[in-house]
Write a structure and sequence with these properties.
The chain starts with 17 loop residues before the first helix and ends with a helix. It folds into 3 domains: about 140 residues, no CATH class; about 70 residues, no CATH class; about 55 residues, no CATH class. It is mostly helical. The chain has 15 helices and no strands. The longest helix has 18 residues.
Length: about 325
């Protein structure tokens, strides 16, 4: 009988992306291991979770010794699942090793555990159980986790709906080269939902997504292009050309600054461009917001300030 693990969240404690998104993510993150986790790890997992909130604050990073141990466990799990010639395949042990690696902070293992919750073989997908794992991996820079977390937030699936925070995670995944995240961000920018309306940048994102194989992007690009003046289209493309990121999410990045600008604009506190650029004016606006809200903040981008901006204004 298979050993059942990973039923709980990392803290011990209705799929939004859709099966296609899960399959594409699985393709990037070792489909064989996903199947193992979905069938073996979650085969006896019957408890489903209620909605969980996606926190604003960054999770504590794993200790260096835990990272090294997690990487070793992940490699052992891969070898156990796909042993060299003459070896014996041991799915039970591989499942346990993947889970241990995830709990010690291995982002790829965390995504695998999350995907397992999103693709349970019994059809009772536990989105809320996946979200804490996705959040951990997303902060470590895993673009698949960032994209899937954005989709769940946008849909309000397993977590309260928050299109502004979804836009932030789509933006971060797009910076790391995720085609579908760039398309999703463009859709929000066209509608002005969750982020400020920005047709020039959205057009540039549609073009990039089309080049990277997102089939629906062409139709939206063709519909939007006539509405964007050429000079503005060039500006949007230029801004996007310098957009790239690797590794763990820093404390402050362009997606967070864009989120702050959009949230302040929604409250009538920002009338400059919503472009994600840092400036003394943006920091002063955040400081003023914190004072008015009586928030004792250590910095303009203090999580307490950002968390208050996430609330309806």
């Amino acid at each position: 009988m298979h050993r059942v693990v990973a039923c709980a969240s990392p803290a011990g404690g209705r799929l939004g992306p859709g099966p296609g998104a899960v399959r594409r993510a699985a393709g990037r993150l070792q489909a064989a291991a996903l199947v193992l986790l979905a069938v073996v790890v979650l085969g006896g997992c019957s408890a489903l979770h209620g909605d969980v909130a996606v926190p604003t604050a960054r999770p504590a990073p794993a200790e260096s010794q835990d990272r090294a141990r997690a990487a070793s466990l992940f490699r052992d799990a891969q070898r156990t699942l796909n042993p060299p010639r003459g070896g014996t395949r041991d799915p039970d042990r591989a499942a346990a090793l993947f889970e241990q690696a995830a709990r010690l902070g291995h982002p790829e293992a965390q995504v695998l555990v999350a995907l397992a919750h999103l693709s349970r073989g019994d059809g009772r997908r536990d989105t809320a159980a996946a979200i804490p794992w996705l959040n951990l991996a997303a902060h470590e820079g895993e673009a698949e986790a960032q994209f899937l977390l954005g989709r769940l937030l946008e849909a309000g699936d397993g977590t309260p709906r928050d299109t502004a925070w979804a836009a932030l995670w789509f933006h971060r995944a797009a910076e790391r080269g995720h085609p579908e995240a760039g398309f999703a961000m463009a859709m929000l920018q066209v509608a002005g939902e969750g982020t400020a309306r920005d047709w020039p940048e959205a057009l540039a994102r549609f073009r990039l997504a089309e080049r990277r194989g997102v089939g629906a992007a062409r139709r939206y690009r063709e519909a939007l292009a006539p509405r964007v003046p050429p000079a503005e289209a060039r500006q949007g493309a230029a801004l996007l050309a310098g957009e790239s990121a690797r590794g763990a999410v820093p404390a402050v990045d362009r997606p967070l600054r864009r989120f702050a600008q959009s949230a302040l604009a929604r409250r009538g506190r920002w009338d400059a461009a919503v472009d994600g650029r840092d400036s003394p004016r943006l920091r002063a606006a955040l400081d003023a917001f914190a004072r008015d809200e009586r928030i004792v903040a250590a910095s303009p981008f203090d999580p307490l300030v950002i968390d208050r901006l996430r609330r309806p204004g």
